[in-house]
Amino acid sequence: MSNRINIQKTYKLYIDGKFPRTESGRYIKWMNKDKSTIINICRGSRKDFRNAIVSARKALSGWSARTAYNRAQILYRIGEMLEGRREQFMAELILQGSSKKDAENEINQSIDCLIYYAGWADKYQQIFSRVNPVSQAYFNFTISEPTGVVSAIAPNDSSLLGLVSIISPVIAGGNTIVILASEKLPICSISFGEVLHTSDVPGGVVNILTGEKTELIEHFSTHMDVNAIIYCGENKDEQKLIETNASLNLKHVVHYKNKKWALENSHSPYHILNTQETKTTWHPIGI
Amino acid sequence: MYNQTIDQINTQERVARLFSRSIKKESKVQALHLALSMIDLTTLEGKDSPGKVKQLCYKASHLHDNFPNLPHVAAICVYPPMVSIAKKALEGTKINVASVATAFPSGMANLQAKLEEVKSVVNEGADEIDMVISRGKFLSGEYQYVSDEITQVKEACGKAHLKVILETGELVTLDNVRLASDIAMKAGADFIKTSTGKVSPSATPPVVLTMLEAIRDFNNKTGKQIGMKPAGGIGTAKQAIQYLVMINETLGSDWLSPNLFRFGASSLANDILMQIVKQSTGNYQSKDYFSID
Amino acid sequence: MSKKQKWEYSPALEGTDHIQLKKQYDLFINGKFTPGAEGKYFSTVNPANEEKIAEVAEANQKDINFAVESAQKAYDNTWSKMPGKERGKYIFRIARLLQERAREFSVIETIDGGKPIRESRDVDIPLASAHFFYYAGWADKLEYAFPGKQANSLGVTGQIIPWNFPLLMASWKIAPALATGNTVVLKPAETTPLTAMKLAEIIQEADLPPGVVNIVTGAGDTGKAIVNHPDIKKIAFTGSTEVGKYIMKSIAGTDKKYTLELGGKAANIIFEDASIDQAVEGIINSIFFNQGHVCCAGSRLYVQESVAEEVIQKLRNRMSSLIVGNPLDKNTDIGAINSKMQLDKIKMYVDLGKEEGGNIYQPSCSLPKKGFWHAPTIFTDVSQSNRIIQEEIFGPVLGIQTFRTVDEVIAKANNTAYGLSGGVWTDKGSKIFKVTKDIRAGVIWANTFNKFDPASPFGGYKESGVGSEGGIEGLRGYLDLA
Question: Whose CA is closest to B178, among B131, B148, B138?
Answer without folding.
Answer: B138
